[in-house]
Amino acid sequence: MSSVSKQRSALLGAAFLMATSAIGPGFLTQTATFTEKLLASFGFVILLSILLDIGAQLNIWRIVAVSGKRAQDIANEVFPGAGYFLAALIVMGGLAFNIGNVGGAGLGINVLTGLPEAVGVVLSGAVALAVFLFREAGRVMDRFAQVMGFVMIALTLYVMFRADPPVAAAAAGTFAPDKLDAVAIVTLVGGTVGGYITFAGAHRLLDAGVTGQAALPEVNKSSVSAILIASVMRVVLFLAVLGVVSQGVALDPKNPASTPFAHVAGNVGLMIFGVVIWAASITSVIGAAYTSVSFISGFHPALERHKNRVIIAFIVISTLVMATAGKPAKVLVLVGTLNGLILPVSLGLILCAAHKRKIVGDYKHPLWLTVAGAVVVVAMGVLSAQTLLKYLGG
């Protein structure tokens, strides 16, 4: 494969890795839950979250690419010790999220085969492990994410059309919402670019050697493409759920995202849901493990040399916890919210780095991107504070 082809493959792979890392069981649960609560007005939350996502991700991916350094190393150069603090937040959040991801994969196997969820958890963990046993694990991971991404979107699109959603009402709610919800905004942004997720693609490009100012146009495209891929899935699922709840159908509180699939296509719909949640979960398991380990592997040469083994250990721990500790469904939305709380910290550090010559050299970060990033930091900081107070008070 030529160097140009390898770079294109890495750029596409990074976009899908980030997008499929975002599209996990929590993503499906959050989208369904907030659609039932806000109805057509949830369209506005999605639109606002897309704008915030792009503002955050462009800043992060560009600075990682220009500096040629991982986010934790950048943070340590901004404030000594900040990188270790950020790495701790990312790894703890990634592990918590991954336990839920493995659980979602087990649920998918259960729906498809009838096997106990614990067995599905172990089988899914084994599939994720297999990806990192290949010598070219990065390329295998890229291609797997792409295939699973297309499968998820295509199947959910079919269900959306069968659900016959009120598109006009959804469009109206997107631009003139009847109600707003700060928790929904924080959760969606946190579930798309919070915690480890936005760094998944950025660190993948770094590992693939896509760095420097010359690569920025392609990095920009890959960054925005990642957000749009995740957003397409979000919008399609939103419309599918809206179509069902508009008919007076209540979502199953134990598994809200499964309801539109079952309602429009019966047992076949449930099988489709099984495929979707398994694909969403297994790609998120891979993305969370890869990215979380990328935040600690640079702290010691031995960790860097044995990075794939550390990733495998991360997956094994997540799988064992899920197989023995039970169902994490109640914490999926909360973990997405907590990821949103991390974003002002991580993005704030990146924005500081964008204007430090020792980190970015002679690169001049566009003013509009700095302003857009600052808006995201302030908006997410305020919304996160409101959300935290709401949880503490509730």
UniProtKB/TrEMBL annotation:
UniProt KW Magnesium keyword: no
Subcellular localization(s) per the UniProt record: Membrane
Membrane association type: Multi-pass membrane protein
Highest taxon of the lineage: Bacteria
Keywords in alphabetical order: Membrane, Transmembrane, Transmembrane helix
Membrane as UniProt keyword: yes
A Pfam family it matches: Nramp
Transmembrane residue ranges: 38-61, 82-99, 111-132, 144-163, 183-206, 227-250, 270-296, 308-325, 331-354, 366-389
GO terms for cellular component: membrane
Stated name of the protein: NRAMP family divalent metal transporter
Species this protein is from: Conchiformibius kuhniae
